Amino acid sequence: MGRRIDALYCTKESSSERIQEVIEQIQRRAEEARQEVEDAISERVTALEERCDELCQQIAQTVTAKVEGLERQLKEIQAGTAPAAEPEDPDAPLDPNLFVLCSDAIISFQLGENDFKDKIREFGIIDEASTYASRSFAKGPAAGVIKVGMPTHLFVYACNREGMRRADGGDRVVATLSHPDDFENVSVEDLKDGRYKVTLTALKSGNYNLDIAVGAAGAAEALPTGPLPIVVQEPTEFQHMGSEEQPDGKAKVGESTDEQKLADFGSLHHPSGIDFDHTDKYFFVAEQSNHRVQVFDATDNRPITMFGKKGAGPSDFDSPGDVVADSPWKHADPTTRLVVADLLNHRLQVLEFNYKSLRMRALRTVGCRGEGDGEFQFPKGLALTDQGLVLVCDSGNHRVQVFNMLEDFAFVRAFGQHGTDVGQFTAPLDVALNTTGEVLVSDSCHRIQVFDIEGNFLRSFGSRGKKPSMVSTKAFTDAVMFDHPTNIVVSDENKLFVCDQNNHRVLILDATSGSLCHQIKGKKKQVEAEDGAVEGDGEDGERQPEWVGLHSPAGIAVSSKGEVLVSSYLKNCIHSF
Q1: How far apart are CA 341 and CA 346, in angstroms?
Q2: Which of 17, 35, 227, 256 could be 267's S-S partner, Cβ–Cβ 3.0 to 4.6 Å?
Q3: SS (H, E, C) 514-544
Q4: What's the pLDDT at 536?
Q5: Left, alpha or beta for 276 (phi > 0: left; psi -120 to 50: alpha)?
Q6: Residue 180 half-sphere exposure, CB side, CA atoms within 13 Å?
Q7: SS (H, E, C) 420-440
Q8: What percent of the chain is predicted at pLDDT more than 90?
Q9: Cα–Cα distance list, 452 to 17, 271, 415, 432, 438 (Å)
Q10: 541 falls in which pLDDT band (50, 70, 90)?
C-alpha cells in the first residue's frame, strides 16, 4: 500500500489533472462532513427529545401522585377519618378541625450541574488536518538499547501533512515486535495531545525490530523510519568501573601534558558538563576555561568540531557550565539542539549540531541577568524532559526554572527559594529526572532533594561528609554523604550518578530510594623516592604525589549502552568507563 502523502505530489504536466482530482475529493469530503455534522446533531437532538419525553412523563407522574393524594385526603376529612394537624405550639391543645394538606402545588424543572447550553457553541470541530504516518516520528529511550527487565517507552508524535505536530489524539496506533513472546506489558496509550506512548519490557537479550503503524484497520501506514531496531542487553554491571586495574577507566579523552596546548582543538581545559546525543554516536563537552563546546566521536573519542570563544556576544560564552542535547522533533531532521548554561553571562545558549556537516551554529540566547521569570544569576545544571521542557538550576536565585523548548522557550514555572529547609535551595547545582518522572536537584547543602514535575517536594537524601570512606572495605550503607554534588544524571536503568566533587568520586545510587550501589573514586598515589621512602604532599620541596583516577569530577553522562563519561576538572580530561 502506498503512502498517503504521495497523493499530494504532482509534476507540471500532471498538476492540472491532479489538482482537479483533489478539488473533487474536497467537494466529496465536504458533503460527507456535512452529513456527519447533520447526523451528529440529529442524534443529539433525538437524545434531547427523548429526555424531554422522559421529563414530561415524570411531570405527569408527579401531578397524578399529588392530585390523587389530595383527593384521598379530602375524602378522609369529609368522612372524619383524617388525622388533625399537630399544633405548632407544643403546649397548645390539638384542634380536631385543623388539617395540613399532604401536598403543595410545586412542580419545578432544574437544570442541575450538567447544563451544556453554554458549551453548545463549542460542540464539534471542523478540522482540515489529519495525521500522515510518513510525516510522523517516534523518539524515546526504547528506540535504541534497552535492558532486560527494565520497563521502557517511546513516544509516537503524530504530524500533519506539513510535518507539524498535532495537538489532539484519536489515531489508531499499533506497535508490533518481531518476537512478541520476548516482551511483556506492551501497550499503546493515547495521551490526547498528539502523542502516543508505547510501553514495553524486554524479557531476554537480543536484537529485535519494532514496527509502528498509524491509521485505520486495513489502511494503517508504517512510520517512515521503518522497523525501529531495538537492542536488548543484560543490566549494566557497574562494579568493575574504576577498579584498581583501571582507575582512570578505559580511556582518557582530551588530556594534554603541555599546558600551552590546553586550548588546542581536541584538548580540554577545565571540562564541566557532558552529554551524549540521542544516537550515542557523539558526545558534547562544555569547557569552562576554554569558553567553548567541543564535540567528540563516541566510538573512537576523536574531536569532531568546536564552537565558541570568550565574550558576551550572541555566539560567545563565559565559563559554560553544563550542556544537554535534545533529539530531533521532526522526521528526517539532520540537526539536534543543544542547550548550554552560560554561567557568567547569566543566560542560556541554544546551539544546533548538524549531523551532515558535523558543525555547530548558534540559534539564540535565552534570558539575561536578573531575578524575574526567565532571568538568571549564575545558571548551572540543566535537564530535559520527554515533553520538551528544559529545567535550569538558577543557582544565584536559589531556584529551578522550567521552560518549554517547543514554544520558543516560554517560561512555565519556577520552584524553590533560598534556605536550608526541605523544598528550599542554597545555590542549586544540577537537576535530573528519574525514570518515573520525578525531579532530582542537588544543591550546596550537600544533599539531593526530590520533587514532582510541578515542583512539589517529595523527599530528600544525603548530608555532608565522606561516607562511605574512600578506603573502606565495609559494605556500603544507605547513609550516603556528599561534599558538593556538582553534577548528576540518571541512566535508563534508574541509576543516579553523582559527581561528588570535593570527595573526588562518583557515587552510583538508586534514583528512587537514594541507596548506594557503587562508587568510582580517585586518590593520591604515593610515590617512592630513590631511597625507598614515601614522598609527601609536596612540602619542603618534595615532589607532588601523582593523582590516580577522578580529580574533582564536574560532569557526567551515561549512554544507553552503559558507557559512563566523567569530566575530571583538575586533570583536564574525560574518563571513559
Answers
A1: 8
A2: 256
A3: CCEEEEEECEEECCECCCCCECCCCHHHCCC
A4: 47
A5: beta
A6: 7
A7: CCCCCECCEEEEEECCCCCEE
A8: 81
A9: 56, 31, 11, 12, 5
A10: very low
